[in-house]
Amino acid sequence: MAAPVASAPRQRLALRARLYARVRAFFAERGVLEVETPILSAAANTDPNIRSFGTRFHGHIDAGPPVRWLRTSPEFPLKRLLAAGVGDCYELGRVFRDGEAGLRHNPEFTLLEWYRVGWDVRRLALEAVELVQQALAMVGRHAEVEVLGYAELFARTVGVDVHRDPVDRLRAALGAVQVDPVALDRDDWLDLLLTHRIQPALPAGRITVLHDYPASQCALARVRPGDPPLAERFEVYLGPQELANGYHELDDAGEQRRRFLADNERRRARGLEEMPLDERLLRALGAMPDCAGVALGMDRLLMHLAGAAGIAEVLAFDFASA
What we know:
Helix content is 34%, strand content 22%. It is an alpha+beta fold. It has one domain: Bira Bifunctional Protein, Domain 2 (BirA Bifunctional Protein, domain 2). Strand 10 and strand 11 form a beta hairpin. The longest helix is centred in the N-terminal third of the chain and has 20 residues. It is globular and about 55 Å long.
């Protein structure tokens, strides 16, 4: 019988262990508390671009709703901990997204998410960059950093005005990229431009920090009034790969409920299942302190550190061999 074969060689598994130790030391040095939150939840992610895994509990009915969802991130319970007064905290753990399998995606992957009380997104983005630089230093590397606005990047690379150009102009800027336009809105076209035209051209070995997203792409971030209004959100890219997504966190329960309901309306328009809202999060938001939070994909960071072409090369066993 042939010996079993792991997806990743031992040296890459060891690199993962070293990276986790570096992350934990990074936050210990800064007084940020490591926590663990539930993987199963009665609520789910309403984002129409993310599909949640569902399962069913077969125990006694006093335990609550039997249908449960595997978390797509630890964001909601971490915010409930913030509302309970835990303070600066982080979680390093597995998350799950249905339908995401391929060269750079695995349905279960490792996410690092942390929150800083009293911080804005600019300060948190700098901390995220520092963590990435420390990870790169583990393999003897350092990256240049460029910080620029979302609108500036689109104008410079594909020549569009993200706030004012019509959808037809955005579609034309995609060039030869062919997509099914059914049920796509303006932000979907902007996302396609970013992933298909802009990201592939981001310089290898450079950390790019994008900020000031269109207000329509606020997700769970606050919106800063102005002309145009802007989402207080940032993303960090290492070369062409997105690593992290951060927000100045919204603490308005009414506005958050409106966004969740709008997500479900978009899901209905696409023929997708509506997702149950996280009522516990909504009840907690009013007590959550002013804070900024960010989630960073550890597997993508490991791919960069190891020079791996695919995510399977940094996993003990990928989805196909799990």
